[in-house]
Structures are given as structure tokens and as C-alpha cells.
UniProtKB/TrEMBL annotation, chains A, B:
It comes from the Bacteria. Residues 1-24 form the signal peptide. Residues 47-206 form the DJ-1/PfpI domain. It comes from Shewanella loihica (strain ATCC BAA-1088 / PV-4). This is ThiJ/PfpI domain protein. Transmembrane segments: none annotated. Keywords: Signal. Pfam families: DJ-1_PfpI. InterPro entries: Class_I_gatase-like, DJ-1/PfpI, INH-QAR. CDD domains: GATase1_PfpI_2.
Length: 241, 241
């Protein structure tokens, strides 16, 4: 088998077993609904709902959606305060649904970005978030998306992390959260929180491995020519005081 | 200086000099217009024009835009065949400008994705691309975006690379291109071509280093908590026959 064949066969190579290291940070991962294939039954599509708002950080959103979007069956829906939403970097996306509607989903994705600085004081958004979380099987924040969850008191007693460049601001919003200063991502059952921007891609692949098996995550890693940091404990931007 | 201070001071640490390795793949980099700060003069914004089309690959576009979008002065414009464009992963973006308009720019970004399979036979798109390249200071393709440039005969005699999972298809479109089977990206003066999907992020940081200095690229790497593969020769998905 040459190098290329090895890469293309990556799924099979890694399918033999899940890495214990990968799941070390996931004490409650068995609580999560599994989407592993079962016989000949068609798999229900994974319903992903992603919040967008003006000045969201573009990679916080599109990094995880890239990975999730390569699942065999997935439906991605954007929801926002208005129909056209502008990222911090400039380009605009179309929100498929609008607040204050809530939508049942498997995964609620909450990106961060400069827009969160205003939104932590937006009672309409925080009220919606509390209602939306109730109908979401799992909630996944990237970067300062955790600030919104924390301010809505949704992370009280939950182990979580956030952007390390904005760590003081985010963690100052709520001291009932068990903030982790060194973690690429933290999985605490219903809440998966990642570190800043690019860490969302690594956490998305973790979610895929957790839900569909590691072979699926490795296949998508290869398809996207990504180099997955698959160890949640390996955080090059850890806050060390 | 603790770890966090070291990271936040990254720009200064790396500003001392450009890594020779980083520029090893850039024989003609001196031809490129430099945007390095000069005294007290305000810098002109970098004008980035990004092509979008139905079934573009979301990270091919938003990965590089994330990095470019953190430059001190930048204007990002999306251009497409129609005003609302759907990515392969589902979410839709708004095109600020529409074909067949051409727009003078510093950097033309051409993403790839499944949509390129049709577009390589779209004479309207290929004609526009030839005209647009003439008014673009530099052209940057990600993944199978190189297929469009190759089919429009814009890469004849140029050293270039593309997605390694689609390597046979893309390279079969034009044998006058000097295709590189092992390269995270290739810089050949006016044309910067990257490998698949995620490689576009690494190549975007290379472009930033080339144009604004390595300190700027390292600063953005830190801001986005990214782990830059800054060596063009390090290609984990190289095609080795």
C-alpha cells in the first residue's frame, strides 16, 4: 500500500477501535444519542441548527459546518435575528429561520465573535437561547459563544472552556461555571464548549467521532486535508497564570 | 514572561525576521506588491475579491477569509453568478457583486468544491475568469479552484497544486500546468495555489506573511488559536505514485 492508498483507506485503518485518549475528556459521552449505522436502516439526518448574528466570527461557524457538512446525512439550518447577517470579516450569510422561533435539533451550534460583546446584554437573545437549548439534544459553543451560554445561566455547574484571548472577559460573566483554562475543548454531556476560533474544527471532529465513530471523523479529516488536533488536553493557547 | 504573555507578544517575538524556510517556495515573491507599513502613512486597504458559486466548499472560502479578515485594513467582496449562492454544506451567502462584472483587486480568491465539476465546462464563467485575472494583482486558488484556472488556460507553464483527493481529475484537465503532487501550497509569483480545503488557511497565512511580514501572520495565527503548517513542503496528503 503506497502513501496515497494508505490515506484513502484511512477510515478502515482507524475503524478498528476508538482511541481511549480521544474520549478521556468525555465522562458523560454515553448520554449522547448515537448516530452509528445499524444494519440496513437508513440513518436519520443529523439536524444542526447554527445561530448567526452580526459580527459573528466567520471560522467559528464555517469551520465546524465544513466538518459536519460531510456527514452522510445532515441538515444544516442557520437561525438569526434577521434574514441577512454580516460576519465580522464582512461577508454576509442568509438565515434560514429567524428568532424568536425555536427549532428541535440534534446539535445547536453557537459561534463567538465580536458580536457577543453586545449580545450578552440582549435579553431577547438570551431568552431565546434558554428556550432553544431545551429542545436541542446537544449544545456546542465555539470561542466566545460560551459567553452567551454563560450569561444565560445555562452553564452553571458545567465544566466549560472558551477563547483564551478573551478568557478574562468571558469567565468574568459567570463564576458558577467550572471554567477550564487549559483545554482545546471540554465535553460535559449536553454541553460541548471549544476554545477560540480554530478549536471549533477540532471539537466538531470530536463530536463526529463521539456520535458516528472515530472512523467517520478520520474520513472527514482526510477529505478536508485537515490535521486534526484530536487531543482535548493539548491546548497550545492555554491560560497559565 | 509567562506562557500567555509570550503568546500575546507573539508578533514582537517573530517580527525579528522572516523564516527563510517560509519563503523557500516563493522564487518570485519580490514581484508581489508589498503592503508593509511605511512610516506614518495610512495603509490602503487590501482589496480581496472572492468568487462564490453553488456547491462551493465552505471552508475553501471562509478559512482564508477568516485570516485575511483580521488584517488591519481589508475589504472583502464576494462575487458570484447570482445574488444568493449555496455552499455544498448548505448555508447560503450573499454575493456583493455579480458576474460578468470585473473588479480590480489585490487578491482574487477562487475556492473549490463540487460545483467546479460543472463550472469547468461553463464558458461564461471561464471567460469572466480570464478577464478578472487580468485586473487582479495576485490570484489564489484553494483546492479544486485550481481546476477552473487550469481549464481557463491561466496556469499554462505555471507551477501549481490542488486537492490531493481530486488530483487525477484536476491534473487531467490541462497538461501544460507544472503540477506539484507534494506541496501544501505553491507560490509561483502571480499565482498561489493551495492543496485541499484546510490547506487554504495555511496558504492564506503564507500570503499575509509574504505581503505584510511574518509577524502579522503569527499575530493572526494566535488571534484565531490556529496551528499554522507554515512549511509549504510539509504535505501530509501528498500524492506519491
Amino acid at each position: 500500500m503506497n502513501r496515497r492508498e494508505f490515506i484513502l483507506a484511512g477510515g478502515a485503518v482507524f475503524a478498528a477501535g476508538l482511541s481511549p485518549k480521544l474520549f478521556a475528556a468525555s465522562p458523560t459521552s454515553n448520554q449522547i444519542q448515537q448516530h452509528l449505522p445499524s444494519g440496513d436502516q437508513p440513518q436519520a439526518p443529523l439536524k444542526v441548527l447554527a445561530l448567526v448574528f452580526d459580527d459573528y466570527e466567520t471560522l467559528d461557524l464555517h469551520g465546524p459546518l465544513e466538518m459536519l457538512g460531510h456527514l452522510p446525512s445532515v441538515e444544516i439550518t442557520l437561525i438569526g435575528p434577521q434574514s441577512i447577517v454580516r460576519s465580522y470579516q464582512g461577508p454576509r450569510v442568509v438565515a434560514d429561520r429567524q428568532l424568536d422561533e425555536v427549532v428541535e435539533c440534534d446539535l445547536l451550534l453557537v459561534p463567538g465573535g465580536m458580536g457577543t460583546r453586545k449580545l450578552v446584554d440582549d435579553t431577547r437573545l438570551l431568552d431565546w437561547l434558554r428556550r432553544q437549548v431545551k429542545v436541542s439534544n446537544k449544545v456546542f459553543s465555539v470561542c466566545t459563544g460560551a459567553a452567551l451560554l454563560a450569561k444565560a445561566d445555562l452553564l452553571d455547574g458545567v465544566s466549560a472552556t472558551t477563547n483564551k484571548m478573551a478568557y478574562t472577559w468571558v469567565t468574568g460573566l459567570n463564576d458558577k461555571v467550572i471554567w477550564q483554562p487549559s483545554a482545546r475543548w471540554v465535553d460535559d454531556g449536553r454541553f460541548l464548549t471549544s476554545s477560540g476560533v480554530s478549536a471549533g474544527i477540532d471539537a466538531a471532529l470530536f463530536y463526529i467521532a463521539q456520535t458516528y465513530g472515530e472512523a467517520q471523523a478520520r474520513k472527514i479529516e482526510t477529505l478536508t486535508e485537515y490535521q486534526w488536533n484530536s487531543d482535548a488536553d493539548k491546548d497550545p493557547y492555554a491560560v497559565i497564570s
